[in-house]
Amino acid sequence: MNIQLNGERYEIPTAYTITELLNELEIPINGVAVEVNLNIIKKDKFAATLINNGDSVEIVNFVGGG
Amino acid sequence: MTEPHFKNDILEIAGIQFKSRLWVGTGKYKDFDETAKVIEASGADVVTVAVRRVNIINRKEPNLLDYIDPKKYKILPNTAGCYTVEDALRYSRLAREAGVSDMVKLEVIGDERTLFPDVCGLLKATEILAKEGFKVFPYSNDDPIIARRLVDAGAVAVMPLGAPIGSGLGIRNPYNLKIILETIKIPIIVDAGVGTASDAAIALELGADATLINTAIAGAKDPVAMAMAMKHAVIAGRLAFLAGRIPRKLYASASSPIEGMLH
């Protein structure tokens, strides 16, 4: 399955939950926010939200800034 | 020595107590190690951060929050780089969902060269976010009317700029800032434009509740030394404000007595 991940094409073998995607990417859950198709997903819904073919996912965190 | 003067001088905003009137940004540092050292030297309680995509390619990249402990510091996410209300709302909501804070330093920028705020957009975004329960700290210009509108829109504080971000020009319009301080009842945090310690002292002397500084520290030849300088400057400025300065006079008034002079 092809998805858009942080602006780039990314392949997942099957529909992933957000938790599964974060695990594959080795991204720890704290200090991170996730958006799927412009909808911000609450953390307690990560394990239940499926990412499908054609979805656009944004994973953001905090970086240095003024 | 300064204890009695500071005991009742607590900075409180939206029910949160802040230990330092120096707030610092975490941008423009060499690396996270330097960032952490500088924040420590500054004595700051609040640090601002930006919201950006996680680096998917380089997963082993260190995380800012591993160097700036959210339990020790109050993290204030900003919406830097947002030029529209829609973007500012999106970044604010993402920042809150990251689960560290419901405070947001709201930036809706109007122009790339000056980075001045688009105050119309800022007012709209402030009102929407305040209704959603955010503690909104809008980065504004030094217009007292806009400051008043931001209060009406539900901001918990106003952050007027001293001068353009990173310009180091100091407090360009102390008179407007003074009017804002006299007419606005919520806390005022001067944000942007401070270039060196005296600028920070001036902001606090005028009566600002705090000042947010990034470039002046990060861009100094010795950022740790500048962080310490700013820490002292903010303390000095605040004390000078509380002490009540003498008026400015055109002519002299002697400091030593006439009585006892030899004739």
Could you give a quick summary of the protein structure above?
The complex is a heterodimer of chains A (66) and B (263). Chain A is mainly β and 66 residues long.
What structural category characterises the helix and strand content of chain A? mainly beta
Q: Output the radius of gyration of chain A.
A: 12 Å
- Indicate the percent of residues in helices of chain A: 10-25%
Question: How much beta of chain A, percentage-wise?
Answer: 35-45%
What overall form of chain A do the CA principal axes indicate? globular
Key traits:
heterodimer, A: 66 residues, mainly beta, 5-stranded mixed sheet, two-stranded antiparallel sheet, 11% helix, globular, B: 263 residues, alpha/beta, 5-stranded parallel sheet, 3-stranded parallel sheet
Draw up the topology in text.
The complex is a heterodimer of chains A (66) and B (263).
Chain A: E1 2-5, E2 8-11, E3 16-17, H1 18-24, E4 32-36, E5 39-41, E6 50-51, E7 56-64
Parallel strand pairs in A: 1-7
Antiparallel strand pairs in A: 1-2, 3-6, 4-5, 4-7
Chain B: H1 3-7, E1 11-13, E2 16-18, E3 22-25, H2 32-42, E4 46-53, H3 64-67, E5 74-77, H4 85-97, E6 103-106, H5 119-131, E7 135-140, H6 144-153, E8 159-160, H7 174-183, E9 189-191, H8 197-206, E10 210-213, H9 215-218, H10 223-243
Parallel strand pairs in B: 3-4, 3-10, 4-5, 6-7, 7-8, 9-10
Antiparallel strand pairs in B: 1-2
Describe the structure.
The complex is a heterodimer of chains A (66) and B (263). Chain A is mainly beta. Helices cover 11% and strands 44% of the residues of chain A. Chain A has one helix at 18-24; strands at residues 2-5, 8-11, 16-17, 32-36, 39-41, 50-51, 56-64. In chain A, a hairpin with a 2-residue loop joins strand 1 (2-5) and strand 2 (8-11). The mean pLDDT of chain A is 96. The longest helix of chain B has 21 residues, at 223-243. The mean pLDDT of chain B is 95. Chain B is globular and about 85 Å long. Chain B contains ten helices and ten strands. In chain B, 45% of the residues are buried. Classes of the chains: A mainly beta (66), B alpha/beta (263). Chain A binds chain B through residues 5-8, 10, 25-28, 30-35, 38, 40-43, 58-66, and chain B through 25-29, 32, 35, 48-54, 56, 59, 63-65, 70, 75, 77-78, 80, 90, 93-95, 97-100, 165-166, 192, 212, 214-215. Strand 7 of chain A pairs antiparallel with strand 4 of chain B, so a sheet runs across the interface.
